[in-house]
Structure formats: structure tokens, C-alpha cells
User: Fold this.
Amino acid sequence: MITDLNRVGIAFGAGAGFVAGIVMALLAGGADAPTGLLVAIQLLAFVIAGLVAGRLSLVGAAPAGGFAALLLYFGLAVVSIAAGNDRHPVAFLLFGILALAFGTAGGTVADRLRRT
Assistant:
């Protein structure tokens, strides 16, 4: 199953989610925006990553979306840790699970849109 996934589509989805998240965060006011809004933007970026990856994947749109969002989150977590963020490791784990769930949801939506 994993070997059937479109790796380029997954990478493209993660990139699209990253760009969409950055643009939305800048429009919201950047680092000065409320934390809840930034979290909502990040979750929406995971859905966008899943949607794009799921749309580009002919087989397994939902797992492709989940992997794209997880790849996006991995990059964000590495940058966050390198910047000195001192969040608890459980917070990183829970947000990774949220990334997987929201990316899978985006991939599922892309699959349903493709079938109609």
C-alpha cells in the first residue's frame, strides 16, 4: 500500500500546505496574531496539504493526505525545536496526531471530489 503512494504528490501537498499556512499566517498578522488563530491556520494548512496530495494520488488518497500533513508537521516541528521551543514532547505528539487526522480528512475530501 505504501509503495503505491505518489511520493511526488505527497511532497507537493506538503509544500502547498506550507505555502498556504505561511500566507494565511502573514495575512493574520504573523507572530502577533492570537494563538488560537495560528493553531486554526496550521490545522487548515494540514487539510490543504492532504487535499492537494490526495488529489494528485490516484491510489490511496486518504493515506497520501495523511502522510503529506505529517511531512509538513515534521518540518514545522524540527524548525520549532531548533528555534528553542520548550513545549512538552506530548504536545508535539498530540499535534502530530492532529496533523495525521486533518491531512487524512483532506485526502478523503479530495478522493470524494474526484469521484463526483
Observations:
- The chain is about 80% helix and 0% strand.
